Amino acid sequence: MDVGCELVQVSLDGVRETHDEFRGMRCFDRVVEGIRNAAASELGVAVSMAVTRHNLGEVRQVMDLAEGLGADTFMHYNFIPVGRGEGIAEMDISPEEREDLLEALVHESRSRRMNVLSTAPQYSRVCTGHGILSMTHFDTFGAHEGLGEEIRFLAEFVGGCGAGRLYWALQPNGDLTPCVFIPIMLGNVTRDGFLDVWRDSPVLRALRDRSGFKGGCESCDHRNVCGGCRARAYGYTGDLTQSDPGCILNAAGSFNIKVNSNKTGGVPQETPLRTPHQGARGPEGRLNEVISDESR
Ligand code: SF4
């Protein structure tokens, strides 16, 4: 039966021990089997990896494995400390580590058969620096020869964070949120008009008007192609329009930012982002394994 499914996305968060530890169950072998089965079908297969300090040094290994299993896409998931992630906010990588990782992904994208994408909107900025247009985390069109300039206007229109602009999220109970990582209920699909909420929500309007952003994201030259991760801004500051504290261009302002739990009625926790001096290359310099092996 054709139900119109074209793509499956499977989470693989490291090599066997790392994945099983992160997911809290022994499921690595079944995940690998699932990826292999999906790749053998006519479905597109994306392997997604939520990158934290826990698995930063295993990015290339996961990419090798995904490619070997026949995946079409490797998707770096930008860890956002919301939901259960709030309890492990200290696992978030620093702005410097994120920048190095995104640079490494661009490098990998040039030599891989797979698409190499990221949910970090800064990927659009980093790609642009290498002559590649990544309008969002959905594609890297500029990788195709000669297309860059022609579609630049599109990137400036739809680029970077797509929350409330290109997509939103439908929760299992029907609640509509700007994205799966922004826990703001906009309406419920069983009660409110789907299109009415999409058109009229003040929250979505705020996400679409980047001239209303604050701090570094307000004045940034890359505001239109990036816009910062709105979920990260909300998770750390409680304000959707604040600067994305995960961006290296905002790193100087990230010293005193805490995970904000006002959205759940709690008290903000003392969980500062790492300073630029802490772990800029990972606990044991492991990120160097990801980015500096030019011998591939
Ligand atoms: S400052 Fe904001 S808009 Fe500029 S690159 Fe960083 S996250 Fe994107």
Give a description of the structure.
The structure is a single chain. This protein is an alpha/beta fold and 296 residues long. The protein is built from eleven helices and seven strands. A four-stranded parallel beta sheet has the order 1-2-3-4. Strands 5-6-7 form a three-stranded antiparallel beta sheet, with no helix packed on it. β5 and β6 form a beta hairpin. It is globular. It starts with 6 loop residues before the first strand and ends in a 5-residue tail after the last helix. The relative contact order is 0.12. The model is unreliable at 263-296 (pLDDT under 50). Iron/sulfur cluster binds at residues 121-122, 125, 216-217, 220, 222-223, 226-228, 243-244, 247, 249-250.
Question: How much of the polypeptide forms β-strand, as a percent range?
Answer: 5-15%
Main sheet attributes: strand count, strand direction, barrel closure = 4 strands, parallel
Number of helical regions: 11
| Rg (CA only) | 19 Å
**Helix and strand pattern:** EHHEHEHEHHEEEHHHHH
Structural class: alpha/beta
Proportion in helices: 25-40%
Average pLDDT for all residues: 82
Return residue spans where pLDDT drops below 50 for at least 5 consecutive residues.
Answer: 263-296
* Strand tally: 7
**In order across it, which strands form the biggest sheet?**
1-2-3-4
What bound compounds does this protein have? iron/sulfur cluster
What is the terminal-to-terminal distance? 42 Å
Tell the overall outline: globular
